[in-house]
Amino acid sequence: MATLKAVRGTRDLLPPETELWNRVEATARAVFARYGFGEIRTPLFEATELFARGVGEETDIVSKEMYTWDDRARAASEKPQSLTLRPENTAGVVRSYIEHKMDESGLLQKLFYIGPQFRRERPQRGRYRQFWQIGAEVLGPAWSGSDSAVRDAEVLEMLATLLNELGVKGWRLALNSVGSSTDRPRYIAALRTALEPVKAQMCEDNQRRAETNPLRVLDSKDPNDQDIINALPKIADYLDDASRDHFEQVKASLDACGVPYVVDPRLVRGLDYYTRTTFEFTVPDGSGLGTQNALLGGGRYDGLSEMLGGPKAPGIGFAIGEDRLILTLQAQAAEAVTKKLDAFIAPMGIGQNPAALLLAKELRAAGLTVEVGDGTFRLRKSFEAADKLAHRMVIVGEDEVSSGVFTVKYFEAGEQVKVPRSELINVLKSYSIAMQYRAEANRTGYASDGLMADRRDEVAKEALENAVSLAQQVLSKSEKHS
RNA sequence: GCGGCUAUAGUUCAGUGGCAGAACGCCGCUCUGUGGCAGCGGAUGUCGUGGGUUCGAAACCCACUAGCCGCCCCA
Known about the structure:
This protein has about 475 residues and is an alpha+beta fold. The protein is about 40% helix and about 20% strand. It has an 8-stranded mixed β-sheet. Strands 13-12-14-15-16 form a 5-stranded mixed β-sheet, sandwiched between helices. β12, α12 (about 355-365) and β13 form a beta-alpha-beta unit. α1 (about 15-35) runs antiparallel to α5, α5 (about 150-165) runs parallel beside α9 and α15 (about 420-445) packs antiparallel against α16.
């Protein structure tokens, strides 16, 4: 019988990699909380119609990439309902906003989500059929200020902060405005007019796009067509006064906050619902993503709620490709992030197993991560297992149990000390804290091209020094005992 | 959806038609209270799956599956 495998484009996430996933998600949750976002969890599948109306019938996502099926009808007289695994989460959030009449609170809604999405694309590095997005939406009735440029800038500044806290290096924010729902048709018409005389000179793909979706011509990477594309009309010249002013306000706020960005007049997004501000964060080559270098994307969607039959509810949101974020962090990591335990407890002989387990229980209760060996292990085997798993080994032998003074071996330093049981937790803990701060300083020390990284480094360094000196005090005290 | 490359031990890979290999890792012994070294020994396996050519296939041919690269698209 053929062995069963994860289906094409899906994969298992295993330790120790899941550790990194958890850190990314915990960091995202902490940042979102500081900016006043609450979590929303919407269903993995929705009525197909939601995505057709929200994302757009003509987009590739809806027209060829969705997992759609007919759900069984309840009665013979009923038509089966067409359902779809969500290919993105914004439509679901807005559907939920409408369904629960969130607009009636009159307040701005700030919602974030973390979860899997599904698109039937050909798998590649950084592109999977089940992939994870971390996203957030800010929306509400216009009188809640949901259409204000300050919301756009706040979301972008939050993303810059999040990427810096995660330690993503070299990110680049590309920004554009695609105009209001009336600007866009005028611009598309102008594009068509400008493309008409020149499109015959362009590559096959661009000729097709010129017909079906002229905006996408701007995305083209074909080197031969670049001169023609650069000469095409710019969206900026087709924005009405309100949209132009809105975009200027977004840029002014970003400047004030020190968030670096590049205005890219060719940045157009593929989903129909985007209006005004659109953006994309990319990472440099060599960050583990190949050509899938877009880490996250998003934009404003002032008309989406109405497209779904809801009240007017302007909004802005983004989605981070979590799989890509993880790949980037892994590629950029200076050293492997395999986390070691605080201590490995090595019982000397089967008779010491109960004492070792008791010690492990106490250390674990004190918040330390601990693994226990086996008294049948040879000392050498204990050493090898301990060195692989932990920073330190605590030897539990007959002498130790009767005297109450334990031997602690530090693998990195190659030293060992005798520590009375009463001091054991403090000694192990202070070193562990120092290790944590050192790791933190290593990680955030690189986030230099964003916000406030300098100040955070100082705090981390200071804390590290304190922890190390505390650890040394405790150690020297315990050495006197021995 | 299109084009290309790849698939052999836990991992990285070698193997151009004649006994299934190396390195690292793993297990054991030298060696049951101070290891990491060294020496000796051991197990690695549906050679992605299915078919075909051949006296003989990991190798050549076909199909399929999966991964990767480039498009398309997107996060």
